[in-house]
Amino acid sequence: MQFCYTKAWMLLTGHPDYVLNIKDEDGDTVYTTVVYSAQTQTVLPSALSGEYELRLIPFSATYYYREYITIG
């Protein structure tokens, strides 16, 4: 997977459908959306700025991918 952390978030093609959760430092979800397999980019809300935990949760799985990001 490839990430771009400005106000757009990018994925390489060929990924499964995901739920994208962005959590703040307190663990509260500040943004959530569905990223379908045909999507290669998701635009993030302009209000997001700072450090977050990004979680990608595949629809058909009990696991998730986690990464700590800074959005500037």
Please estimate the helix content. under 10%
Biggest sheet, spatial arrangement of strands: 3-2-5-6
Residue ranges: pLDDT <50 for 5 or more in a row?
Answer: 1-6
Beta-strand portion reads over 45%
Strand tally: 6
Structural class: mainly beta
The value of Rg in angstroms is 11 Å
SS field, number of helical segments: 0
Q: What separation lies between the terminal Cα atoms?
A: 20 Å
Topology:
Layout lengths: L7 E3 L7 E6 L5 E7 L5 E3 L6 E9 L6 E7 L1
Antiparallel strand pairs: 1-4, 2-3, 2-5, 5-6
What would you note in describing this structure?
The protein is mainly β and 72 residues long. Helix content is 0%, strand content 49%. It contains no helices and six strands. The protein has strands spanning 8-10, 18-23, 29-35, 41-43, 50-58, 65-71. A four-stranded antiparallel sheet has the order 3-2-5-6, with no helix packed on it. It starts with 7 loop residues before the first strand and ends with a strand. 8% of the residues are buried. Residues 1-6 have low confidence and may be disordered.
